[in-house]
Design a protein that fits this description.
444 residues; alpha+beta; 8-stranded mixed β-sheet; 13 helices; rod-shaped; disordered N terminus; disordered C terminus
């Protein structure tokens, strides 16, 4: 996994391009979101600057009577470029920054803006007929070269191309405009050469730093997502073992979890004839059949808001009224018992015989809690649990046997048939009832 992550985020050493095109797209989006605000401000500022330069050049042309016709033509051309090309381009870039395709063309737009600014710097050489103007032009050019290399967020290759061409054009135009030998411009050449040697190195470092910071953020985000996925898996596994409220308590409190409930209803369901049938089935058939049956039981339990406690072999234990109290706990369990009996009746063994459940229900107090350190289990204890187990084991196939307390809670709501007194192991004689008996002779 770590090796894959490193490959996805690796950079090409010279161009600093991402090897993964999807990562490159994400980086453009990230870079756009971070600097589009300042870029829009720069577009507005550049447009204002070009307008001011146009006004300045117009004043120069009007104030100097000794300007030659050639210079007038050059000034007029430069002013036209400023007013009719530079300013509209700045406005167009500002407007386009709000369009959907702005992200993909952002670097192009930034490069165009840099080109415009450098062009304006170079063009200022034409703004005056005497050599003092070159000092202002050069200062403006040098400042813009620094901005493009260090602040513009352009890729260093684009920044270097713009600044190198602009610097060369400045020197050539200066020499042409004033017919000054290049040797007399040694200072300009030295400073521009230094700026264009150090500038690309600074731009490369800034570009690489920006991309590495993006890579580090993405790696952190990716690992956080992976951790979140693993945490979600762990929590799902925990919720498969424990009720949600108990799981939350366990995560926030390491003390022992034990609760006493005054009234709960517990159900045990057992597959009748399982031992004989399982001996004739393959392991895959056996597990598949149990999974089919108990998965359907789980769905019914979830829908009715019951708490599945556990399965033991072919026995299924579920309770109502835990871990949260419920006044209708007996009704919910009764509905569950009737529904799973009907579900089982629609299933058959491999030999074609119908599958039947033996179900027992009891109501009363119980203690619930979590036991274990490495493997947790939420379980119930108490006489009510023992009685429900006895109701199942002493019942009949296809029937639902309930104790007296459950009968008191369900009477007048469900059809109940008295079975009479039954000798219950460990309990003695107990009065029991059938819930919605399918065979009214079952008590005989």
């Amino acid at each position: 996994m770590k090796h894959t992550i490193e490959n996805n985020f690796s950079l090409r050493p010279f161009t600093l391009g991402f090897r993964d095109p999807n990562i490159a797209t994400d980086y453009r989006r990230d870079q756009f979101d971070r600097i589009i605000g300042p870029t829009r401000v720069l577009c507005v500022a550049a447009a204002i600057l070009f307008i001011l330069a146009w006004l300045f050049n117009s004043q120069v042309r009007a104030a100097q009577a000794d300007i030659t016709p050639q210079v007038l033509i050059e000034l007029a051309l430069f002013n036209s470029i400023l007013l009719y090309i530079m300013v509209p381009l700045c406005v167009a870039l500002f407007v386009c920054s709000y369009l959907p395709f702005a992200v993909s063309l952002f670097q192009f737009g930034a490069a165009l803006m840099g080109t415009l600014v450098i062009s304006a710097s170079v063009g200022m050489v034409l703004s005056d007929a005497n050599l003092t103007a070159q000092h202002y032009s050069f200062a403006f050019l040098l400042f813009n070269v620094w901005v493009i290399y260090t602040i513009s967020q352009l890729r260093y290759l684009y920044a270097a191309a713009i600044c190198l061409v602009g610097s060369a054009a400045f020197v050539a135009l200066l020499h042409y405009r004033f017919a000054e030998p290049l040797a007399e411009s040694a200072t300009y050449l030295f400073l521009l050469a230094g700026a264009n040697m150090l500038g690309p190195l600074a731009a490369y470092h800034l570009d690489k730093t920006s991309r590495n910071e993006f890579i580090n953020r993405r790696k952190v985000e990716q690992r956080e997502r992976e951790l979140a996925i693993e945490k979600e898996k762990s929590e799902r596994l925990l919720l498969n073992i424990l009720p949600e409220s108990i799981a939350d308590r366990l995560k926030s409190d390491t003390s022992r979890i034990a609760d006493r409930f005054d009234e709960v209803t517990v159900l045990f369901a057992d597959i009748a004839g399982f031992t004989d049938q399982s001996s004739q089935m393959s392991a895959d058939q056996l597990v598949g059949m149990l999974d089919t049956v108990f998965s359907q039981f789980d769905e019914v339990a979830d829908r009715l808001g019951l708490e599945k406690i556990k399965t033991i072999g072919d026995a299924y234990m579920v309770a109502a009224g835990v871990p949260s109290n419920a006044t209708d706990h007996a009704d919910r369990i009764a509905d569950f018992a009737l529904e799973i009996r009907a579900l089982a009746g629609r299933l058959t063994w491999p030999d074609g015989l119908p599958l039947q459940m033996r179900i027992g229900i009891a109501s009363g107090p119980a203690v619930a809690g979590v036991i274990g350190r490495q493997k947790f289990i939420y379980d119930l204890w108490g006489d009510t649990v023992n009685t429900a187990s006895r109701m199942e084991s002493h019942g009949h196939s296809g029937e639902i046997q309930i104790d007296e307390r459950t009968r008191e809670l369900l009477q007048d709501k469900y059809p109940l048939t008295p079975r009479g007194e039954v000798e219950i192991k460990g309990k003695g004689l107990m009065e029991t009832w059938w819930l919605a008996a399918e065979d009214l002779t079952a008590g005989t």
